[in-house]
Amino acid sequence: MREDADLPAVSGRAPGSALDPSSFRRRRPLFWLTLAFVSGVVLDDAFRPSRTAIGGFCAAAALAMLATLLWPKGKRPAGLLLGTAAVLVAAGGLLRHAQESRFLAADDVACRTPAGPATVWVEGTVCDARRSSSGERAWWVVELDALGSSPEEMSSAAGRIQLGVAGEGVAREVAEGSRVRVFARLEQPASATLPSGFDHAAWLERQGVRRVGVPVGEEIRLLGCAGVRRVDLWLRRLSGQWAARNSERWGAERAALANALILGRREALDPADRQAFRNLGTAHLLSISGLHLHLLAAAVWWALAGLGCSRRRAGWAVILFSIAYAAVAGAQPPVIRAALMIVLYLGGQWLYRAIDPLSVVAATASLIVLHRPGAVFDPGFQLSFMAVLSLIAVYPTLEAAWRSWRRFPEEWVRDPDELWRVKIARWVRHAFFVSWAAWMGTTPAVAWHMGTFSLVAVLANLIVVPLTGAAMLGGLVALLAGPGWIGEVGQVFPTLLLGFNRWASEFAWTGWEVPRPSVWTIAAYAAVWTWVWVGRGRTATLPRLALMLPAAVLALALGGLLFREKVSAPRLTVLDLARGRAALMETPGGSAVLVDGGGEGTGRTISEFLRGEGHRSLVLLVVTEDTPDALGGAVELAERIRIRRAILPRTAAPSRAMRTLMATLARKETPCDLGAPARKLSGPGDLQWTFFDDLAADGKWPGAGSEALGVRVQWTGTSVVFAPVRSSASIRRLLDRGGEDLRCDVLRLYGSARGPWPAETETLIRRSEARTVVAGEGPLRPDESRGLDLAALARERGLLFLAPNREGSLRFADGDSERVLAYRQGAWRKLGP
What angle, 0 to 180 degrees and rounded to 10, lies between the N-to-C axes of helices 357-371 and 333-350? Predict the structure, then answer.
């Protein structure tokens, strides 16, 4: 039956009115004050004002608040009190974050140890212990109690440190809650040296970790366990034991997903499976949050109700279970948010209070941010709260717009034949709207932190979310039942979920790697999101929503490509990597060429850097040498980035990494040349490429059993040579074969960063006539190696000498070899004349 045009609304709460529980027009001061506090935290992180500036701002805000309170109430403008309070709270957020991140106590480890390497004795409690998937390495986060130069001279200390230890011996006995005493070499975390890359130092700082290091020798002493008051650490330790037992019973690969979904232990999850979840837009399911906790809490509620417990007793049990489970799962912001919301909702019902959903969200956010302001920048915090806010603000708007457009009062249907069709249609519509709203809320954070944009996330979540619930229950059954037919049945659902993600992510169109969106793009996206919330029941009609929402999402995904910095001339960027070497050539047409693929484990880092620069493919990959420094990360890079052509060195006995890379390129049907091409190559753009090797004149292999490729790239006004420096004989052969091709403006030396620079290197530099010399990669600085002192030689000849591991990533901008930029601490700065 159809509704007439003049039929009154079914519900007494008109969409968008003050009676609508999630309406913009409803009074909720706590929500706006929490938003002001978070804004203060963000402002302090962005501008880092001095103590004087913060004190002045706080004093001005306090005086403004006092003046507002003294203003006669009848003459005070509407909204002035809330606005002044918001400014004061923002000042409080700015001050709280400054105290947490910069204005540290005198006994903090960052104040008591230098930024450079220093060896000290430390004593404290392990609050987080993670192992690599192979079990060979472990990482501990230690809350310090004492610090000193010797065990007898230790004094009280505060703060957190991260230690990387070998996973053998005493390290196997250490878990969350263990008290340890370690003689360690500590230093400040290295700042970000790759633009558009993950800033690990900033991430550690927001976790409260300001020093990292390794134990010296075998000086690790286990002092016992934390006291009974640290129930959170005891519960987290228990989850580690459960995860280990689950892995022993079912194998690390089969148990990995269940451990991640139930216990928050993601260490053993294969990186390829994590990438599959990202591509499909379901990576949020790997983080314990409201979906996981609410499913288990509902199971506890119904189980207790079935046993005859009263609602109040069942509610108390659910509250205790939620708090305990949050500790078991690692006490990360998403699960803390879910647990606090359960506590506040049940508490509000017991006190017979009307529950405003946005005020509940604000209360949970304020508790988390007051305790740890840096949580605002945590990806889990942003994904969790933005998903919930979008479900509260966007989903009701979509439902109201649909009902207004449809003009069909579903609540009035009484015909049995039509009722079941209405219920099915309503369920499908609600599921789609919920998935769309959650996706719309989390897309900015996913694009910013993960660099992915999924085209099928809305539809995939309709399948994967129910599968996740079944996988959690099945994994829980397998965990409790152990080996046997019951456990095998429980393992079916985690296996099914993992298989579906692997299968669906194989399609190339499921996920895009996108550059990090600009601040202006996110601001425009937030404006559309706010319009959807504010315009509920008024301007946010279904046709407008159908036009605006997809346009906003596409603009967010493509904005990083459309509005990124344009390359006006060919430019070279020498990357500073933790291991290995790599250099990127870019052209105005948007093409990219990579020389060397970095060391082992750096493939993902390089791919994220390329994605941030707007490159989804490489026109050419050149590997100059069959060594871990040159191709250790190339295999992983080839899996993530499309490579159109590759040039590899010839070798008498290819290494395992070289064989794997060649097999990967063959599987992806990438043309591959072995050895230096006989003729010059042109492109992309104005680039001209010349290749030469360090083989003997008769073509015999050098002592290393493989050739090293030299590369010369030239464009208008500038030339760069990548020259291998392996030995004196290698340089002599290079000088004989290179000839005029060695002349350049920029000379990049590689191959001797961990050994002596041969004396013949001076001849190579003189023959090249280079004005800038770049040398060094990895942890050892060039001037710390034996042999020729390159820094002194450069000073003597008036050359500009640069080391990526000392200066950061280097960029020769606008085709000018004398205009050099170095990337350090999140910004490019000019070097040289």
Answer: 130
